[in-house]
Amino acid sequence: MDDLDRRLIAMLRTDARQPVAALAVALKVSRATVQNRIDRMTAKGEIAGFTVRLAPEAEAGRVRAIMMVDVEGERSDAVLRALRQRPEVERVHTTNGRWELVVELNTPTLAEFSQALDAIRLIPGIASSETSILLKTVAF
Q1: pLDDT per residue over 113-139, tens digit each?
Q2: Which is it for the CA torsion 9, 13, 18, 22, positive or negative?
Q3: Are residues 60 and 105 in the same domain?
Q4: Rounded to whole angstroms, how far apart are CA atoms 37 and 5?
């Protein structure tokens, strides 16, 4: 997968029902390019399907986690851009505490979770991180 594939996946994760033409405009490529990439990733099994986003408690079996991120100097914008390209990143929150960012992660397997952590930790501008796997969501 290249950068365009990752941006496309990030957009599809936000709203998989977006028309291909709208995705093409947002990505500044042709409609055919977007369709070809979706078809290729689907054929290769990288896109397993299109679905709805469920409440966290409804996603039993997935690996969900919170990653606290310390960003070097003025690199927040670059780090945020890189995180937007990661399909396992569901949300990013900025904070005013010890950590600059709180990143919500969601992966299908522990192996993919480990790969995601390795890749995210290598993003230029990330000074350090601390990650906790979410075991259970308690309703209030």
Answers
A1: 999 999 999 999 999 999 999 988 776
A2: negative
A3: yes
A4: 7
